[in-house]
Amino acid sequence: MNSLSHLLKESWALVEDRQDKVASHFYARMFLSDPQLRDLFPVHMDVQRARLLDAIVSSIQTVDDPVRFGEYLRSLGRDHRKFHTEPQHYETVRFALLDALRTYCGEQWSPAYEQAWRDGYDQIAAAMQRGAEEDAGNPPYWHAEVVAHERRSRDIAVFTCHTMQPLEYEAGQYLSVETHYQPRLWRPYSPANARRSDGTIDFHVRAVGAGWVSSALVRKLQPGDMLKLAAPMGSMTLNRQSTRDIVFVAGGTGLAPIKAMLEVLAGYNRNRWVNLFVGARDRDDLYDLETLLAAAERFPWLQVIPACSNDPGWGGEEGNISDVVGRYGPWDNHDVFVSGSPDMVKATMRTLAELRVPSIRIKYDAFGDM
């Protein structure tokens, strides 16, 4: 481990159990330094604070891997164009971040930590700005009109929007979405289809708890409404050069990116067996099962294994989808894709580790309730 990485991780460990306080201090300092920045952020900052910390931790965790570090930060820079981020904003952020870390590390803060975070942040800012510059030919976000909206269950909706300008993405990636029902609140959702020539994109959304955006997208959105879509992010995409068989594990609306990848596979796959595990609480939440079973009939290489965790006697596999995956296999020579809630992804990753599936062959995306 190089000294920069070691110092970053060591100092972050000093404040990790006070992440919320660090984030609150950071935003307060940033908005005091540049009050105009407050207008770029939503009124409710709880989730935004978590997103800052996720970005910091992700950056720290990838600093030892220059390729991943660069790719992640360039995509983050492209994504932040939706906030109309300017070069001077990075200076304000650095000042606020260092002040927050310095405050909550207290007497344990050292000149070595100070220099490491300055150097580390400069690398982060430079990579993000390169990503933004590389994306200068695209708009900061795309306008899209909702053309169809369908409730599939008590809290799940599938809707289709049409972008006003071409938006390129790979199946498996995700886009940040903003609706006028909750201005300045951006939430990540994965397209449920491969890129289409007509510019339409399908999204699957579940409204859960206090999810401000998800509730609006499920219960309020209607044809004719306009959305904003930010630049695509994420690396949970297919490797066309791989010849290994595939395991897809989807929890709830985590099915969306997997459905997009299935659509791509349908166009060229002939010799890779695909096992698709779909988990839900009950049969009502298996909102797209009919379509999936029809695809399995059409493509002999596809097997669909649905499971319900809380619907005894429904007729299929029972239990958490992570446990169901463990009852099949082995999967140690497969490419594995996992998509769903953070808890579902963690449980599935534990099962895959127990089955000795190499981590290099696993790709995943986890989104909370938003």
UniProtKB/TrEMBL annotation:
**All copies of domain FAD-binding FR-type, residue ranges:** 139-239
Q: What InterPro entries does the record point to?
A: Cbr1-like_FAD-bd_dom, FAD-bd_FR_type, FNR_nucleotide-bd, Globin, Globin-like_sf, Globin/Proto, MRET, OxRdtase_FAD/NAD-bd
Tell me the cofactors it needs.
FAD; heme b
List UniProt keywords, sorted A-Z: 2Fe-2S, Heme, Iron, Iron-sulfur, Metal-binding, NAD, NADP, Oxygen transport, Transport
According to its UniProt record, this protein's enzyme class is oxidoreductase
Q: Report which reactions are catalysed by this protein.
A: 2 nitric oxide + NADPH + 2 O2 = 2 nitrate + NADP(+) + H(+); 2 nitric oxide + NADH + 2 O2 = 2 nitrate + NAD(+) + H(+)
Quote the Pfam families the UniProt record gives. FAD_binding_6 (PF00970), Globin (PF00042), NAD_binding_1 (PF00175)
Which residues are in the Globin domain?
1-133
Which EC number(s) are documented for this chain? 1.14.12.17
Look up the domain of life of the source: Bacteria
UniProt record similarity statement: Belongs to the globin family.
Q: What is this protein called?
A: nitric oxide dioxygenase
